[in-house]
Each structure stands twice: as structure tokens, then as C-alpha cells.
Design a protein that fits this description.
The protein is an alpha+beta fold and 247 residues long. The protein has two domains: 7-155, Rossmann fold, CATH 3.40.50.10790; 165-246, Elongation Factor Tu (Ef-tu), domain 3 (Beta Barrel), CATH 2.40.30.90. The chain contains five helices and 14 strands. Strand 8 and strand 9 (177-182) form a beta hairpin.
Length: 247
């Protein structure tokens, strides 16, 4: 795969601090100096491929075709889990076979799934983002061959996961709680129950009085619980994995 302006996106749970993102970018630029590396998200749910997977699926839908996305939420790094390359919607995704890429595959009947068989000379036990996925991303955007073996869709982890997840999958710095539900599949008349609290729909923050709770379709196309000028997650005691009911 070669594009005129190579773009590589990172989706990780590494956090913005520390050396990890910089090390991955350095590996890429050492061989693909013309590439532009963009940090899509560095605070995905930590060591939690299930909830991170639905967020990655939603965010990737807004990316341009022809890009490479490196997804690393990988609590099984160094173990026997496979490394994957998924081709979907004219984009290439690299990541561990732990469910992180499953919603992408489940939602695209034309997705092509491969096991990465690349065997780098140096592969640390704990940092496959740098030693495995970053070099492969660099090879892809420079048109170099990447060793892969085809897989059946049914062989990957997460193939049996639901299309949507009625749980909190991400909480941002403002305390907004993003769910794994697709906004265009939920009527605006729906009410969300979180514990003993019911939340109604509003189009956006300014449609609600200060301090008011509501749900809306966020910019990634997912249902999000928010509080105008407040922190919904703190108000409702929400965390990653908190369940909700729709009525």
C-alpha cells in the first residue's frame, strides 16, 4: 500500500506522558521519513480491549481512506496472542488479536483479515507497539512487502461480540461518558437508565440548563451522557464498564 501523503494514526492506552509514543514514531520515521504520524488517542481504556474496541471502530470511521492505524491496547503482549492486519474501508489496521479490531471486522463484510508473520530481529517481550507494529506500519506506507498469512473472520477474538455495547467505554477530561451505543440507532425519545437515574435526550449542551444531565449523539456517532457545565461521570458514579438500560 502506497499513498501520496502517508498518514499513520496511533490509538493506544499508553498515555501522553512517557517515552512510548515517541519511540514508536521514531521507528516509523527512521524508514518512512515522509510519513506523518498522528496521535489519535493515547488514553484508551487501559488494558481493556473490549471497551477500547468500540471506541476505535467509531473514531476510525471519520478517518480518510488510505491511512494506516496502529492500535495497541495489549494486556497480553509477549504471550501467545496473534498480531493482526485488517483491511477495512480502504484503511489498514494493525493490532493484537484480543478483540481490539473485532468490531471493525464484524461491521464490514468485506474486511480482509491477516495474521502478521513479520519476525523482527529484535522483539521485546513488552513493547510490540515499537518493535512489531510500528515497523510494519512504516513498510506499508513505503510500499514494502509485509509478511502475512490470511485468516478467516471466524478465527479472530471478538467475532461473537455484539454490534453495540450498552456500557460506558470512555470518559473524557470533561467527565462526559461515552457509550458503545450508536446514536443513529437510538430514537431521541429513548431514555437511558443509569442506576436510579433516567436521562433524556438533548441535541447539545446549550439545549440544557446548567447542571442538567442529558444524552446526545457525540461527534464520533456514539451515544454520550453529559452534564451541561458539569461532570456527568462524577455525578452518576460512572466508570469504564458501567452498564446502562434503554427504555
Amino acid at each position: 500500500m502506497t499513498v501520496s501523503q502517508p498518514l499513520i494514526f496511533f490509538f493506544t492506552d499508553f498515555g501522553a506522558q512517557g517515552p512510548y509514543l515517541g519511540q514508536m514514531e521514531g521507528v516509523i520515521l527512521a524508514t518512512a521519513w515522509q510519513a506523518r504520524v498522528i496521535n489519535l488517542l493515547a488514553d484508551a481504556p487501559a488494558a481493556d480491549p473490549l471497551h477500547a474496541a468500540y471506541l476505535l471502530d467509531a473514531l476510525a470511521a471519520r478517518l480518510p481512506p488510505g491511512v494506516v492505524i496502529v492500535g495497541v491496547v495489549d494486556p497480553g503482549v509477549g504471550g501467545d496472542r496473534r498480531a493482526l492486519m485488517v483491511e477495512s474501508a480502504q484503511r489498514v489496521f494493525l493490532g493484537p488479536d484480543n478483540g481490539l479490531l473485532a468490531p471493525l471486522v464484524n461491521g464490514d463484510k468485506d474486511a480482509r483479515v491477516h495474521e502478521l508473520t513479520y519476525d523482527p530481529a529484535t522483539l521485546s517481550a513488552s513493547f510490540h507497539g515499537r518493535d512489531l507494529f510500528a515497523p510494519v506500519a512504516a513498510s506499508l506506507v513505503t510500499g514494502q512487502p509485509v509478511p502475512v498469512s490470511p485468516l478467516q473472520r471466524s478465527e479472530i477474538v471478538g467475532v461473537d461480540w455484539p454490534d453495540e455495547l450498552a456500557e460506558i467505554i470512555y470518559i473524557d477530561q470533561f467527565g462526559n461518558a461515552c457509550t458503545g451505543l450508536k446514536a443513529d440507532c437510538l430514537p431521541t425519545s429513548a431514555r437511558l437508565r443509569l442506576g436510579n437515574v433516567q436521562v433524556q435526550h438533548a441535541r447539545t449542551f446549550s439545549a440544557v440548563e446548567p447542571g442538567g444531565l442529558f444524552w446526545y449523539g457525540n461527534s464520533a456517532g456514539l451515544v454520550e451522557i453529559a452534564c451541561n457545565q458539569g461532570e456527568a461521570a462524577r455525578r452518576l458514579g460512572l466508570s469504564i464498564g458501567s452498564a446502562l438500560e434503554v427504555s
